[in-house]
Design a protein that fits this description.
- The complex is a heterodimer.
- Helix content of chain A is 63%, strand content 3%.
- Chain A is mostly helical.
- Chain A has a two-stranded antiparallel ribbon.
- In chain A, helix 2 packs parallel to helix 11 and helix 3 (45-62) runs parallel beside helix 5.
- The longest helix of chain A is centred in the middle third of the chain and has 30 residues, at 157-186.
- Residues 1-20 of chain A have low confidence and may be disordered.
- By secondary structure, chain B is of the alpha/beta class.
- Classes of the chains: A mainly alpha, B alpha/beta.
- Chains A and B meet through helix 6, helix 7 and helix 8 of A and helix 3, helix 4, helix 5, helix 13 and helix 14 of B.
């Protein structure tokens, strides 16, 4: 074989058959969940920046231009969030040793020594928030609404209506906001302070409510939830309640007593999932153009899971970092860094199957 | 088959009956047109047919309602969705998913239709509504008419035998509306589908209907063949009004039938319109010269020039997307024009802020609800004055409200009012700064004849006081009635400009009913006809 022919493209074609189809939405869900957990666990600004880059890479590769997604300038928003978060922490948190300035002790809440560590900790929290937002924006741009709907719990059609309304709400509201802003500008309204929110928010909220109502009406008129002939049984409702309580109690207990609590949490969550799934089996909703699970979907799941799995095998794993009590540079492990970059692994997969 | 008997219905927390003793029967295959003022109970009646009323809306209901053997009051909209397809007025607000095919399949998925059959049914409705070329498109990229056809397809996927449509064309331009109506006629004639449609623009639907139901204050005020019921309606399209005045029998419902009567009229041939005495034309109130607009690479306006004189109403016509709204938004600097010049009484308005400009150039955007936020109608007008830093001249506000016909509701919450009243409140919030020019973007959309007539009266009064109005609209009957001049835009360019009669008569697409009835004359309105025979 000609040496030139062994290219990445050829490698793909070994595994993946080409057709203009999207990846299974469940594959993207795995990626979303794993990445979200990593972002929240790896509280080290260096790692967070890596994760942010990885998420952007995946978005760049896989976004669908026709998806009407939530648009926002990440730069501008990020700067605002990080600054606000740093300021807030600087003023409110009295810990840290590198004192920048001191406010009189008599001032309520914000009096005392203000430290660099507090500001840095605030900024890195802000960065985590921005990265999470970037993740959800990327997911929103990759996965079309019609695919997401298939993920909705079939057992609970009411929840489905609410989720769908919420999904379409943000981009629609953004469009409407522009219209309302113009309409108010015509009347000489310039929104300068929060006191003048009313002309903007009120038409926006009411318009949004009206839209949500007509969407819900359209869904009902087209038979959404029609196969749910019986209401969820008392047994199911009680089961769900017990499961949720167990999960909540387990989570709280886990903070203090350790593994026994986590076990309870896991049991509670499993109970809820099992009940919802079992109830869903009783609904006979079918899927238009059901698509088989493809090899490429498995690759996506694998790519999504890879960073989490590999991290389990890193010895002396240290993901979290705090600048308290005195600032030191955040530690950076090459192995962890490389592993976290695996979040970008889906960017290596082809755009379309 | 639908059978309603002694139906009374009250919305939650309301003591007035929205449906008041309604009994009627609708046979399979009928094409029924439901008419009545806004708020008369049309929408409520239509929503009763598929159980949205009372199951979705709540409230109290009495009487019996049976649709294809199902008792509506006991079985809800989910069960009735297989019998009755439902489409409402805004295409945007009823799309559940984002693409054409999944949107159509949505109802089928809910009904648990096996995938193989589902494919077949989706193909079927795509063909029925000529949507095959659009099947993979995203809904936001479709025109209003196309989206409305997708909504109809989605409603038909479950093969209902009844299709109910609540003002399906009120948000569409004439061409899209015609497409949608043609689709309905085909469904009715080829498949025998029962069609029940509510509509304000009678002239669009009348000729297709077998039966007309006039709803007034929640009662069926008249019900029967269109020719009989039309005589009991207070406001009718120009063709019908003229026929009634001239006592044409049988009442013509189409232009073709009307022309037969019209030809028999011995008319004195009108001399060509005497060109108005051209004593040096006064300086225009608003001059627009060679303006251009661009969004990215897309040219939205190209060298558009027009002028408005004091005391003149100019109509701006054109397809959706021709650049009409873009021009208005450019004039008040919401999106600055990239080229050209706009002068107000000879003075350039270049670079002036929107808020400042709107004090002299009033602009009413398409959706009046976006403007309204105050607690009462009066405060809505005050808010504009406060924004502009103008004194709260109570006498003037009272006078304006009186003129707008809102004196009885000054203390009411604006959003509780009817569509027509809300439109007038929004107009008041714009007019309170006494602008010299008024720009109106589709001000009669979704209004009934009565509300429309009230608006026309207002404009004509303001025009007499020397204001200049620029009216963007699709409603040629309205243009024929009020405009002195017409400008037609297409793809951002002016393709026709001139005297209303000349421009409207030159194009069969834009010709109002009276012009079509008397193609040889230069007539536009009933008054023109009556003056000459």
């Amino acid at each position: 074989m000609n040496k030139k022919a062994i290219s990445p493209t050829l490698l793909y074609s070994l595994f993946i058959t080409h057709s203009a189809m999207r990846y299974d939405v469940r594959g993207w869900m795995v990626w979303l969940l794993v990445t979200a957990v990593l972002i929240m666990v790896a509280r080290n600004p260096l790692y967070t920046i890596l994760l942010l880059l990885a998420v952007q890479l995946v978005k760049k590769r896989h976004y669908q231009p026709e998806n009407q997604a939530f648009q926002l300038s990440l730069w501008r928003f990020g700067l605002v969030v990080i600054t606000l978060s740093a300021l807030f922490n600087l003023l409110m948190v009295p810990f840290g040793q590198t004192v920048l300035f001191t406010l009189p002790e008599s001032w309520p809440l914000i009096g005392g020594a203000k430290t660099m560590e507090a500001a840095l900790y605030g900024a890195s929290n802000g960065l985590v928030l921005v990265t999470l937002l970037a993740l959800f924006m990327a997911f929103n741009q990759i996965v079309p609404v019609s695919d997401l709907v298939k993920l909705m719990p079939r057992a609970l059609p009411d929840v489905g209506v609410v989720l769908l309304v919420a999904l379409t709400y943000v981009p629609e509201t953004q469009r409407h906001l522009q219209q309302v802003r113009e309409a108010q500008a015509i009347r000489g309204q310039e929104i300068r302070s929060l006191r003048q929110w009313r002309p903007l928010i009120l038409p926006l909220l009411i318009g949004g409510l009206e839209r949500a109502m007509s969407l819900a009406e359209a869904m009902v008129a087209r038979g959404y939830g029609s196969l749910q002939t019986t209401r969820p049984s008392i047994g199911l409702q009680m089961g769900l309640l017990v499961g949720l309580l167990a999960a909540l109690g387990g989570w709280l207990a886990g903070q203090y007593v350790g593994w026994a609590g986590w076990l309870l949490l896991a049991a509670g969550v499993s109970l809820v999932v099992a009940l919802v799934w079992a109830q869903g089996q009783r609904s006979v909703r079918t899927v238009y153009r059901p698509r088989p699970w493809r090899l490429a979907d498995s690759w996506l799941v694998l790519a999504g899971l890879s960073p989490a799995v590999i991290l389990l095998f890193v010895p002396n794993l240290q993901l979290a970092y705090t600048p308290y009590p005195a600032f030191t540079w955040p530690p950076f492990s090459i192995i962890v860094g490389l592993t976290l970059m695996l979040v970008a692994a889906p960017a290596l997969l082809p755009r379309k199957l | 088959m639908i059978k309603l008997q002694d139906i009374y219905y009250f919305y939650p927390d309301s003591t007035t009956a929205v449906l008041n003793d309604i009994s009627l029967e609708i046979e399979p295959g009928e094409f029924v047109l439901v008419v009545g003022e806004s708020g008369a109970g049309k929408s409520t009646l239509l929503r009763l047919f598929n159980g949205l009323v009372p199951h979705f809306s709540g409230g109290k209901i009495q009487g019996t309602a049976v649709v294809n053997g199902h008792d509506v009051i006991h079985s809800g909209p989910q069960i009735l969705s297989r019998e009755v397809g439902f489409v409402h007025q805004t295409p945007e607000a009823q799309a559940v998913l984002d693409k054409v095919e999944p949107e159509i399949a949505f109802a089928l998925e809910n009904a648990g239709i096996p995938p193989a059959e589902m494919r077949l049914r989706v193909e079927e409705v795509l063909d029925l509504l000529d949507l095959t070329p659009l099947r993979h498109r995203t809904l936001v990229t479709l025109s209003g008419g196309e989206r409305q056809r997708v909504a109809i397809a989605a409603a038909l996927a479950l093969r209902p035998s009844i299709l109910v449509l609540d003002e399906p064309t009120s948000q569409l331009d004439p061409q899209s509306a015609a497409d949608v109506l043609k689709a309905l006629v085909r469904l009715n004639e080829d498949l025998g589908l029962t069609i029940i449609v509510a509509e304000h623009r009678l002239e669009r639907v009348l000729r297709y209907a077998d039966r007309l139901i006039y709803v007034n204050h929640g009662r069926v005020a008249a019900d029967g063949h269109p020719q009989e019921v039309l005589n009991q309606l207070p406001l009718v399209p120009p063709l019908i009004e003229l026929s009634q005045k001239l006592n044409w029998r049988p009442l013509p419902l189409t232009i073709k039938e009307g022309q037969r009567h019209a030809r028999r009229l011995i008319v004195t041939r009108q001399p060509p319109p005497a060109s108005p005495p051209r004593s040096s034309p006064p300086e225009p109130l608003l001059t627009i010269k060679n303006v251009g607009q661009q969004y990215g690479d897309k040219v939205a306006l190209r060298d558009v020039s027009l002028s408005i004189q004091a005391g003149e109403i100019v109509a701006l016509l054109g397809r959706n997307g021709a650049g009409k709204s873009t021009l208005l938004r450019g004039l008040v600097n919401l999106h600055p024009l990239v080229k050209g010049e706009v002068r107000l009484r000879g003075e350039s308005i270049h670079g002036r802020a929107t808020a400042d400009l709107c004090r002299t150039i009033g602009y009413l955007p398409q959706n009046p609800d976006d403007l309204l936020f105050a607690e009462t109608v009066r405060e809505e007008l005050w808010a504009t004055l406060t924004n502009h830093g103008l004194p709260l001249d109570e006498a003037w506000v009272a006078e304006l409200l009186e003129e707008l016909g809102l004196t009885a509701v000054v203390e009411a919450y604006p959003r509780d009012l009817s569509v027509g009243q809300r439109q007038r409140v929004a107009l008041g919030a714009i007019m309170v700064t006494r602008p010299q020019v008024l720009l109106l973007d589709e001000p009669t959309r979704g209004l009934d004849y009565g509300a429309k007539r009230a608006l026309v009266g207002l404009w004509q009064r303001w025009q007499a006081r020397g204001m200049g109005l620029l009216l963007v609209t699709h409603d040629v009957e309205l243009v024929a009635q009020v405009a002195q001049r017409v400008v037609v835009l297409s793809e951002g360019e002016v393709i026709a400009e001139g005297n209303t009669a000349v421009v409207l008569n030159a194009s069969p697409l834009f010709a109002p009913q009276i012009a079509r009835l008397f193609p040889q004359q230069n007539w536009l309105t009933i008054q023109d006809v009556l003056a000459h025979i």
